[in-house]
Specification:
Blueprint (H helix, E strand, L loop, with lengths): L1 H18 L5 E2 L6 E2 L1 H17 L4 E4 H5 L11 E8 L1 H6 L5 E8 L2 E9 L4 E6 L4 E3 L2 E2 L12 E4 L7 H15 L5 E3 L4 H10 L4 E5 L3 H13 L3 E3 L12 E5 L2 H10 L16
Helix pairs in contact: 1-2, 6-7
Bound molecules: 1-O-phosphono-beta-D-fructofuranose and magnesium ion (2 copies).
One magnesium ion binds next to strand 4.
């Protein structure tokens, strides 16, 4: 099933990159884009899984956008971002990923991130390590943030308060100083870069559970840590995350972040 699904998705994304990168609609803001490929990939994944596991549940980015609930329960649940980096996809910017996390009892059991244009298949199973195209992954051993590259994203929220806090945090981190700040335009790819050891840490306020479910397992199975931006235990529904190579750097980043709390992914939908 999985090989067939992978081949279909790979072909679907590559053909669409060539022939159809049109924006179909926007969601939370004029820059929160959706294409037909986002929807077709998510439908293909859900259909393929349902055929084999009809009782399993799903949290899919585009299904949630269409009104499906975003509730993570103890049931086996597939958490899907069909295209992480849709804006990149529309612009043919080369970081476009399919992210699938599988959770049971609210714990990720395996995660897959396929970076389409790099043809890199990142995989992790809980307790069995993280891999890229079969090669084991290990986070960076760097303990000094002034010798680190930090990744972050600004997402699609342009509310003044959120932007002010994001830029205040960014300014403080840049001026530590760190050796570099990067934005792949995909949370999933940023987390794969942490798991691969080429970026020491990634943080963001504004992500969704589908952006980071698979990547969170990749990071921990590669020896890294996850933390809330205020230093506590990460909550994948809180829309806040730090994924780092070690606690030292994660705690250092906590000190510089002006945190805020976006509406949770599992917040009750506003009454109609
Ligand atoms: O909408 P998409 O393409 O699935 O998600 C793209 C994205 O920019 O939104 C997140 C929140 O800002 C980012 O971290 C993530 O990479
Ligand atoms: Mg995403
Ligand atoms: Mg997406």
């Amino acid at each position: 099933m999985y090989v067939c699904m992978y081949v279909c998705i790979d072909q679907m994304v590559r053909e669409a990159l060539r022939d159809d990168r049109k924006v179909m609609m926007t969601k939370s803001s004029s820059i929160d884009l959706v294409t037909q490929t986002d929807q077709k990939v998510e439908q293909l994944i859900i259909k393929s899984v349902k055929e084999k596991f009809p009782t399993h549940r799903f949290i899919g980015e585009e299904s949630v956008a269409a009104g499906e609930p975003c509730d993570l329960t103890d049931f086996p649940t597939w958490i899907i971002d069909p295209i992480d980096g849709t804006t990149n996809f529309v612009h043919a910017f080369p970081f476009v990923a399919v992210s699938i996390g599988f959770c049971v009892n609210k714990q990720c059991e395996f995660g897959v991130v396929y970076s389409c244009l790099q043809d890199q298949m990142f995989t992790a199973r809980r307790g069995r390590g993280a891999f890229c195209n079969g090669e084991p992954l290990q986070v960076s051993t760097e303990e000094d943030i002034s010798r680190s590259i930090i990744a972050t994203e600004f997402g699609s929220n342009r509310e003044t308060e959120a932007i002010d806090r994001m830029f205040s945090s960014l300014r403080k981190i840049v001026c530590i100083p760190v050796q570099g700040v990067r934005s792949a335009g995909s949370a999933a790819v940023n987390m794969c870069l942490v798991a691969s050891g080429c970026v020491e840490a990634y943080y963001e306020i504004g992500i969704h559970v589908w952006d980071v479910a698979a990547g969170s397992l990749l990071v921990t199975e590669a020896g890294g840590v996850l933390m809330d931006v205020e230093g506590g235990v990460v909550d994948l529904m809180s829309r806040r995350i730090i994924a780092a190579n070690n606690r030292t750097l994660a705690e250092r980043i906590v000190k510089e972040i002006d945190s805020f709390s976006p509406t949770r992914d599992d917040a009750p939908l506003p009454k109609q």
